[in-house]
Amino acid sequence: MTKRFFLLALVVTLFLPKAHADEGMWLLNKIDKQLYELMKSKGLELKPGEIYNPESIALSDAIVAIDGGSCSGSIISDMGLMITNHHCAYGDIHALSTADNNYLEKGFWAMDMEQEIPIKGKTVTFLRGIADVSDLVKHVIDSLDAAGPRGLFFMNKVSSVVEERYKSNPYEKSLSSEWRGSKYFLYFYETFADVRLAGAPPVYIGAFGGETDNWGWPQHKGDFAIYRVYTSVDGKPAEYSASNVPLKPRRFLTVSSKGVAEDDFTMILGYPGRTNRYSSSFEIREKFEVLNPMISSVRRAKLEVWKKYMDSSDEIRLKYADKYFGISNYTDYAKWENLCIERFDVIGKIEEREAVLSKWIAANPQRVEKYGKVLENLQKGYSLKADAESHKGYFQESMVRGAEFVGIGQRFLGVTRFLEREKLDSFDLSYPRAKEFYDIAMDLFASADVAADRELFKVMLGYFTEKVPDSYYYPSFKALLERFDGNTAAIADYVYDNSVITDRKRLEEFFSQKRSVADILNDPVVEVVNTISIREYNQNLSKIEDESGISLSSQRTAYTKAMYEMQNEMGLSVYPDANSTMRLTFGEVGGIVPRDAVKYNYLTTTAGILEKEDTSNYEFRISDRLKAALQAKDWGRWGRDGVLYVNFMSDNDITGGNSGSAVMNGKGQLIGLAFDGNRESMAGDVFFVEGYCKSVSVDIRYVLWVIEKYAGASNLIDELVID
Fold first, then answer.
1. How far is the C-alpha of 116 from the C-alpha of 79, rounded, in Å?
2. Would you name the residues annotated as active-site residues?
3. Low-confidence residues of the chain, pLDDT below 70?
């Protein structure tokens, strides 16, 4: 059976404040008996109420969303320890690192709570309840519609009215729609803001194999990191304070050291970010033909420039490590997604689904009236905007998200707009807007390399002038091209040789005296950014939509609702797209046959780390200390028959946001952390391919070995309950 996301409600009692007891208590999205029996037959030993139950303690009380849902995590001790992926903690570890004390390279381990490092802005959020408010929301929408036309923030008004109805509930509230408004759920959350780093392995463990192994198999990553959540003395959420105490959680996960075997039941609870499995064939075709090739090519070119300079200097590597890490992930995803869309004929399969939808619509006059033109309108709408979408995309990738010193030129230009608005003729650093820009520019010298950025701008400017027609250029930018005979490399050198932004001394000298608006407008960086604006691209897309009379947003909504209604009517399994709300997915441990004559096992071992070791390749180098530990094979209680396992594969259905999610066995015990998918699953955002979509997880036994045997942080092990 295909593994799907399920709304977290197997047998779920609705959480309502006592003030609304008159509205009743009812079951929410009760899973049918057949599906529950299937989960039991695969190895689930829990009752539904043990997974989620707002009236009692359940597994879901140990699951958290990190930083609003960018990653998932789980509480693993009664003292608030929280475990997630190393790549989820990468930005924090990078921010704490300096050239003299590089935690990315050497790792970090707090040997007691006093050594834990507070992470400013870090949050973890617990789900405290769910309410099905579909009828209430639809009533509110009808009432507001009767009062006048919908504005830009219409759904914000709807959400406010709904949340007011539940104002006596003490938790944060978030309204979420499923199937583009077919159903609505109100989620109740509690967020804690004092989160401290407690442990993280070095990158040669946490990110071993790097970009080369990303989305691949076999992998050998120790992709984990540990934080601790703190509260006020009375157990309430609180900002950082030295007087705060470790969280006493409602529930924490116990750990299984018994490992996994083929066909073992696995269950994941987490916060998957976004899937688009109700995308039309026309939307997927745009992604396949326009968006993914653009993203893959431009971002890959950007990464190649950065990598060249990162390989030349440890100082530059530290500057770009987090940025490179963040961009490389989706760059590869776009490439592999296209390969999978083609390999598995995803567009063809969606077209087959749409043929069924078309017949279903045509069979009923009311459906014809409601949905009769949706497929035709989608086809026309996407066709009309294809070129304009490509031009906007290339502009955004090459100029907006390109060279960083050019990128802050928009902020520099913005100073002139404030000056003009306030009717000021001159400024210096006493002017707040100028001081704000100056500080941003000075900070950039610490986080970016001017030479690397210059080379990057040459590459990005080349993409822009090649892929975006000159009908989008302002006369001043055309003049700049003519001045340098279209030589984009020469334009880049002119900009970086003369702009006050691209040289620290020029920047300091510029702001050391009174300046005028003209002084800013004459800067070469501003010459570039003042002639290129996202506004033109958006206006062109809006114009195309207005002239066609087709709102693609409205048509996508109609398409999804039609699919939802049809599948419901046919008695098919209907699951909502991921949207950063908590979901459950179940599966089984197992390998994969990715192509003819190739079969992958479901487990990797430490032997693979030694096999892959390459001292000439940053992604595959390991420390002498780790190498000696691996060769010594002192696995302690974490090995089995002389072997220590590192990663395993299962067929759980996950996506971005699931990173760091707890992988549990049938008893609800922690057996691993999900951190990646496989390359054969890269069409999973829009289409689940049975037998090929896999989840890659770090085996909790390797995590425990690294903590105890490699890092010597037995204080962390002592907090865990291990079976």
1. 13
2. 87, 223, 659
3. 1-32, 34, 573
